[in-house]
Structure formats: C-alpha cells, structure tokens
C-alpha cells in the first residue's frame, strides 16, 4: 500500500514576513556570556536576551536577533547582589524595569547620585554620562534596555574591578567620605540632582493621554517625558476590545508586550495577516509598513512602543 504524504502549503509572503519580524520570548534564551567586560568577575554576572541588535553586547551576529536601525532592544536579568560597573556610552540608553528594584547610579567625579527604580519606572542615561546599576533587592531584576543606535560602540568603563578596588567599583567609583553617595531627589536644588531629574520617569507620575481611538499613551521618552535624542518611547494602555485602523510611519516602530495579549496586523495590496503577541513578545514594524494593533484578550493590555525618531507623534490613530 502506498503512503500519501501531506505537504503543508508554503505560507504566503506577507505572513512569512510578519513572522520574520517577530521576537517570541519563548523562542529565545538568556546569554550569560554576553558582556566581555564581566568575564572573570562573578560579582558582575548578568544575562542578556537580544531582540533587536546586540545592545551593549558585541554579539551582533545572533541569528535570532533582528537587525537594528535607530535603536536596539534587549532584556537583561541581574541576580540579587550583582552590579554593572560605571561606564558611559556615545549614545543614549534607557532602562525599563519589569521586575524587582534596580539601583542606578549617575557618576559626577567621586560623587554618585543613586535612584531606585521599581516596575515600569525608566531612566534614560545621557550620552557620555557615566552610570552603573546594581541589584540591592531580594529578587532578580528584569529590565528592558534600549540603546539609541543600531551599532553602538563598546562601553567605556570608568570604574571597573579589574583596575579599581572591588568595593569602590561596587559604589560606581564614589569616594568613601560622607556625602559621596546621595539618594536621588528630583526636588533638590543641587546642580547634579537637577541634571539627572529630567531623565528619571516614574510610572506613578505618568499622566495618561487618552486617544479618541480608545487607548491611552503614557510618555516616557519624548514629548511629555525625558528629552529624546534618537527615538521616542511610550507605554500604551490598550483596553480589552479596543483596536485601531492600519497606519504607516516613515520610520520603524516596535511593540513589546508588558501585560496581556496584543493582536498585530499587517496590510498590503488588500491582503491582511495577523498574529497575537503574549507577554514579553515583540513585533518590529518596518518603515512604510501598514500595520495596526488590537486587544482580543480577556484583560487590558500594556505594551512599550518604540519609534525610530525623536520627533513628536504625527499619526492620527483611528478606531477600528
């Protein structure tokens, strides 16, 4: 008896393309050797999961990572008690905390200002400003990190345990005397505090702007948030059952789901394809691509939206 083998038809081109621009959290793995500067120093241990570009890692050839344009996107897991020594970048970089409490220090000579960030809090690290981060909490810190370049340069270390005392490095280079480590205070008149204040965005302080299309935008980087340079970032609150009509941009935008489920659709020449994203899934929408989002889930959803320009929003979102 002959056996008939059923051959699955090839997915249409548009469906193949949208899948190629999707980052599924469950299809990725954390890389515990992503940062060469941490090798040989157990106290610097942290892991990276790459979605777009290499971020602060030189591993830009990861086959599961999308090519970056105006920004990168990755997750970093930092265990309890570990730290990243103070360093600087030639471009901006932001941290969005998803779990735990992260201590971020900005360095001014031998003085350090430390801010503690909780879930959905953000710091945008200025280009050239030395900074470090540490987990002083009781659970691992999980955060999203975005660097404002598709091909960022390696970090420039300011105080690393390879050439500084270990305790000094853990303090990000702060001196040992009183007043060398100061808690962040956005109301302070100190010039260093005033320098840092515009770049720390608390979730509790974000004022939602409700669009006529039925969803809310919470500004983090860009108009209404921290001063932008290479890109904008907002958190979108999408109520259950709400969706928008397809739109296009001259630059890329990215959805990274924080809570709930988000259905994403692409349109081309009368054809439409959709797929649903879960928590920590990511959709990259290239420049010029007609796309939309909708919440078909049973709860409200939240997702981070990254846009490859610092300019204010020009899209007029319309309800589906």
Any overview of this molecule?
This protein is mainly beta. It has two domains: 13-203, Jelly Rolls; 205-307, Jelly Rolls. It has helices at 13-20, 166-170, 191-196, and strands at 22-23, 47-52, 73-78, 83-88, 93-99, 102-108, 111-117, 122-125, 131-134, 141-147, 156-159, 181-183, 200-201, 209-210, 216-221, 232-238, 253-259, 262-268, 271-277, 282-285, 290-294, 301-307. The longest helix has 8 residues, at 13-20. The radius of gyration is 21 Å and the shape is globular.
Question: In brief, what are we looking at here?
Answer:
This protein has 320 residues and is mainly beta. The chain has helices at 13-20, 166-170, 191-196; strands at 22-23, 47-52, 73-78, 83-88, 93-99, 102-108, 111-117, 122-125, 131-134, 141-147, 156-159, 181-183, 200-201, 209-210, 216-221, 232-238, 253-259, 262-268, 271-277, 282-285, 290-294, 301-307.
Kindly state the number of beta strands: 22
Q: Kindly report how far apart the N and C termini lie.
A: 53 Å
The helix fraction, in percent, is under 10%
What's the pLDDT, averaged over the residues? 95
